[in-house]
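Structure ticket #2291
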Amino acid sequence: MSTQNLQGRNALITGASKGLGRAMAIALGAQGANLILVARDKQKLESVAEEVRAAGGTASVFAADITQEDQVLALETEISSKVGKVQILINNAGTNLRKNITDFTLEEWLGVQSTNVTSVFLMCRSFVPHMKGSGYGRILNMTSIMAHVSMPQRTAYSSTKAALLGLTKALALELATEGITVNGISPGPFATEMNTPILNNPELNAQFIAKIPVGRWGKVEEIGALACFLCSDSAGFITGTDILIDGGWCAM
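Resolution: structure written out below.
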């Protein structure tokens, strides 16, 4: 794609302080987008903002807990006054808790649901109105291969990602006539902080790599490139679907 493909677009990314959120922020910044970085850790967000600026983009940071309705409503007000309308929304914030279902407390279970699903509802409810009436809008929901397949101790995580996939399809149909696309990105094994327990365990790491047909972990830059394409004008006919980026994992 040509550079500066997203010039002037306001792009909000949740969970932007690390991992795939950071990678997508840097990639969209290099395409000319104006990044709005959201997470709970403002110090880490400031560090990512510097990287976005170094890549040629602009960035502002907003600390908020997006599982809380009052904080999302306040966030929308603050962003509207300081930045303007959001045209790209990437719902990237997520958490995983690996446990047998009988070991979960209700609080732990609801915490995963709140971060992975409820936050997406709250963000879409607040920022979809920004996109309506303009003929353009992009929403990307970070789903997972765990929405399609699963593993032991992933009941909380898989259930949320499957729910998010359903939300993605329904919302895409709601917004199709507005020129707003809604898609999922389902990453396979990527070397991010969330997968540190596996990366730091040589035996588990070897088992994971053996399951990936391409024989390696995904590179976060590959997620960034996909996000840029889905946010571009060239992807306006792609909506209501989920893009697997998993090195062939789900093809087996």
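Closing remark: The chain has a mean pLDDT of 95.
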